[in-house]
Amino acid sequence: MPDDTALETTSPDATAADDTAPDDTGTVLLSATRLTKTFGDFTAVDGIDFAVRKGECFGFLGPNGAGKSSTMRMVGCVSPVTSGELRLFGLDPATDGPAIRARLGNCPQRDTLDEELTVQENLWIYGRYFGLSRKEVRSRAAELLDFAQLTDRAGDKVEPLSGGMKRRLTIARSLINSPEILLLDEPTTGLDPQARHVLWDRLFRLKRSGVTLVLTTHYMDEAEQLCDRLVVMDHGRIVAEGSPRSLIEEYSTREVLELRFDAEDHKDFAERVVGIGERVEVLPDRLLVYADDGDHAAAVVHSRGIEPLSALVRRATLEDVFLHLTGRTLVD
Predict the structure, then answer these.
(1) Where do you find CATH 3.30.70.980 in the chain?
(2) pLDDT tens series, the chain, 332 aa
(3) pTM for this structure?
(4) For the structural domain made of 253-315, what CATH number should be given?
(5) Which part of the chain is CATH 3.40.50.300?
(6) Where is this region: Disordered (predicted)?
């Protein structure tokens, strides 16, 4: 594995956030108050408030169309704020855009690599955009290729690389200027499970090195794995905020009983399990019974003479929080 210290972009005493929210007294690098973005009569972001502290991974969770990407474009100083206040490093994007962008790394939702160039050439050229000398660019590129596990592909053209390799290269490129904040817009969309886990490992190492991460995702497991704190967005608004653990504790039970029946519409069985847990969610292919003791809930189901095709007890997750808050499946 590459040496974590090779990618330190902050002072040596920078420490990684643990699995709880960072201390409220931490330095705020990014803040928004009543942040709003409209496109004609359509409101994409509707007066949201949030703050991101140094050294944490902060997430925007929600389905497609929730306003996550519009928020990220404003934070990245590439889309003007319609109304409200946005500050990065204490600076206003409306007047200090270039100074802010010099301190940001940006990994867009879609890869924008030059596929006719080699892997290392993509890094060299991008580094020159930030005014780095040729010597600095080559040194930094070598470190980043090692970090992204692409050293052995440095001289290869980008076009034939796998999706996971291209994504790691895009993230490596976004780090060429040693940013203080890295913006990641749905970083693992379209990747297979193995590639996603490799990317999660790289992002965890970045946070350990002191880089502040701000990401959007509609993958619940990704948010639960990476984020110290997150907000759940729906229709341009923030409907909940907290650490993954605190959100699960607030909006769900400790366990969930999943029941599947031989039926096209599971609504027919919902009334028969009412009262067994705290609440019941009806999905197209199953019923979710929320209870602190899933095994006891399953026993009560059978005591009522209800015979599902399958019954599974699992711990509650952010997906359950999402369903409770938005009342729909993960991806619209």
Answers:
(1) 253-315
(2) 444 444 444 333 333 334 434 444 579 999 999 999 999 999 999 999 999 999 999 999 988 888 999 999 999 999 999 999 999 999 999 999 999 999 999 998 888 899 999 999 999 999 999 999 999 999 999 999 999 999 999 999 999 999 999 999 999 999 999 999 999 998 888 888 888 898 899 899 999 999 999 999 888 899 999 999 999 999 999 999 999 999 999 999 999 999 999 877 788 888 899 999 999 988 888 999 999 999 999 999 999 999 999 999 999 999 899 888 887 544 43
(3) 0.84
(4) 3.30.70.980
(5) 4-246
(6) 1-22
Q: Which fold has domain 4-246?
A: Rossmann fold (3.40.50)
